[in-house]
Amino acid sequence: MLATLFAFVLAFGVGIEKAHPIGADISQQEVDTSRVVQLLDEANDDINSSRFTEARKKINRAGEWSEELDFSKGKQLTALRMAEVYLNVQFFDSARVVLEQALEDFPESSYKIQMCNLLATAYRYMNELGKAIETYQMVLELAEENSQYRMIAAIHQNMAVAYINMGKKAEGLNSFLFSIDYAEQEKDTVFLAIAYNNLGDTYNEFGEYEQAEFYLQKSYELAAMKNLRSDLLRVTINLANLKGNLEEFNDALELYQQALDLTKEVRPNTPPFRILYNLGNLSLKMESPDEAISYFEESLDYCLQLNIPPGIYYNYGGLGDAATQKGQLVEAIRRHEQALDVAEQMGSLPFIQETRLKLYELNKEAGNFESALIQFEEYEAISDSMLDLEQERDFAELENRLELNRQTEINTLLEEKQLQQEKQLKFQLGLIITAAFIIILILYILYTINQASKGKTKAYNQLAKQREELEKLNQEMNKLFAIIAHDLRAPLASMHGILFLLKSGELSKDEIVSYTNEIEGNVQKNIDVMEDLLSWAKRQMNGITFVKEDLNIHEVVNQVIAKQESRSKLKEISITNKVNKTMRIKTDENALKLILRNLLSNSIKFTNLGDEVRFTSSDKGDKIQLCVIDTGIGMSKDLQERVFSSRSISFSLEGTKGEKGTGFGLSLIKEFVDKLEGTITIESEEGKGTKFCIDLPKE
Predict the structure, then answer these.
(1) 11-30 pLDDT, tens digit each
(2) Which CATH number is 681's domain given?
(3) Are 315 and 463 in a shared domain?
(4) CA-to-CA separations, 459 to 96, 150, 390, in angstroms, rounded
(5) How far apart are CA 158 and CA 151, in angstroms?
């Protein structure tokens, strides 16, 4: 849509009859009015030759003479020519004001078709596409009534661009083909140059680059042959846009430079803000964000000076995209918020919706989850608003139909008063049927609105649930960061102190062996913590994929025991693997190891010096039971109930030698057992030990 808005097409000008030679017997009044028409003819030639400054001077002079002479035709032509100049130099709002005033002053003007065509084009340039299409359709009917075939083709050409901007591809292409058929039959070179340019730009928008290049080249050749400087400028810009899409960047840059040179010639008083914007976009494609920022800022300055809201909006968006490419998320958010302000001032729901979605994605990437959620809610609300607008239009159409029916019924009733009673009864029956149909239609509309309201409520509840989940996740993350700071830092600090003593050379051999064992235990502990943290993080992001493998359980248990050997030796704990050596299971190896490792780590933590931990297994038909049994300090009934009470990060207790824990190992165990479609149970008695058993399906 952006390229369509910024690659404007020429609003078709209208020709007028040349003034007749002035004879000696013509009065002074006739001479003066003829001179006005002649001056406006000259201004029309200046417009066609892109001499807009000279044209404006002549139009202003003709307007003054027309006022002095109260020359109606001169006033109408003055407004028409001035609107053409404004459209060519891209002062679209000024063109709109001039044309609306002229149509109000001269509602039955012989130039009404030309005025309405230019007014619709001004609406199109200002992105008021609904108004533009409505006006084009109205003026098309007038042109068809008056058999103005060239104007009919011109209106179809302009309508095609408006349809394309609205996303109605089929309607746009049909209108293009209609106008091109006319121009080719009439061999109208000027018309063809414009039509080919517009059609080529449309194919470029659709990503059909081969067709785009074909039509743009044909337009370029015709414009060059006829020396149509304004059309040459437009097609050069569109060719540059095409080369950028084809990633032929050097060709694109060369064409944009040609367009800048042509702008100085054709529009010396109009800043080239669209070309600068396009150069900014090209720089982004070339991954040169700093250069893009320079172009966007220059274009933005011009748009601010000229008060062109769409240009301001797009340049703020371009600056935001450039900041995103540089990884400057805060700046990107700021720029897109500026674009959002402009879009809201314009009242453009599509612009607002597009920008809200970008802000949602940027805030989410930056970790601003609350802001991201707000932007997403606003995005959804806009979607609902656009639906509401559509419903309002449906209601307006229904009201018009009802009013038309009412008037028809009144007229029919007056006529039926003169007819026989039988006809009156038939009419009443028809009236009842019509009323019943209207009631059914209204009930259907109310039902549709009610269903839409339910959908909105459902969406709101989903958003509320997402907000609650985000808040819960944030709380768990805060607690997790505290755990990391405390439980990883302490062992690392201890290891740092031991390494310092080792480095000093003041330790005996026995002390070195002792401290080395302690370091090994701390390292293994940190590895366990990091593995748990990684599993927890993946779980929060739904990033864990379970893959079933055929495993020998005895071997898996041996691997788990080997990794905890250094920790068990520090407390002189005996670990025995009594799992059946031939027992096998189909499950996820990493998940099973995490469960067994955390159960073993928990047993070591709460087992006294010289105690025992053992693994056992039993076959339960379609399930296998694995147990970890220790002779440690055991757990109270209250503690057993709390162990698996939450799926969030749980409580943490010190071990028998003051060992610290992360607090979420048991939570991970429960989570992963559930994922493997198993169950876990606890049997424990204070002072006698604990038995954890997990039942997992064999396959």
Answers:
(1) 333 322 222 222 323 334 44
(2) 3.30.565.10
(3) no
(4) 42, 52, 19
(5) 10
